[in-house]
Amino acid sequence: MKVIRVVAIALTIGIGAGSTAMADGFKDCTKLDKASWKPASEAEAKAKALGYEVRRSKIEGSCYEVYGVKEGKLYELFYSPEDLSLKHTIAK
What keywords tag this UniProt record (predicted)? Predict the structure, then answer.
């Protein structure tokens, strides 16, 4: 019984640590209500203007997260949907 409890705790800790490691943690770009956000297509257009080949985009927290490739390398670009300013970039 004690071994099962230890294994269950270890699995819980491991799963929690794994999900934290996978998340980049950047998702606070604006406090503005979603109804007032600019279209995501405009964030993609900004990334293209910077020379990225846009693969896809999604909403991450209160940011537009745009996945793009530049010079053979994958990047995650985080834009504020309020003013489409680039808030953060992560090279993968």
Answer: Signal
Q: Where are the domains of the chain?
A: 39-91
pTM of the model: 0.73
Cα separation, 46 vs 1, whole angstroms? 57
Tens digit of each residue's pLDDT, the chain (92 residues): 554 553 444 444 444 433 333 455 688 999 999 999 999 999 999 999 999 999 999 999 999 999 999 999 999 999 999 999 999 999 99
